[in-house]
Design brief:
The chain has about 80 residues and is α+β, with helices and mostly antiparallel strands. The protein is built from two helices and four strands. About 20% of the residues are buried.
């Protein structure tokens, strides 16, 4: 998951921790164009719960990607 700003990325990290949802901040891969240098890595199966938690907390995110078998990033 990418974010429009570092503020949003850090906010997402706090929200996920408060909701006991899995996820960690990582450097945004070079192959992905994003508004800031941080992305959230989490299990794809948790996408809906994470989106709902961030929306309820008022934290913005930009795009969600999955890593394909050939190690490319595909927008979800």
């Amino acid at each position: 998951m990418t974010f429009p700003s570092t503020h949003d990325a850090i906010g997402a990290e706090k929200v996920l921790a408060a909701l006991a949802l899995p996820g960690r901040l990582v450097a945004t891969p070079e192959r992905i164009s994003a508004g800031c240098g941080f992305s959230m890595k989490f299990p794809l199966a948790e996408t809906v719960r994470i989106q709902e938690g961030l929306t309820q907390a008022g934290v913005s995110y930009a795009e969600i990607y999955r890593i394909a078998n050939n190690r490319t990033y595909v927008r979800v």
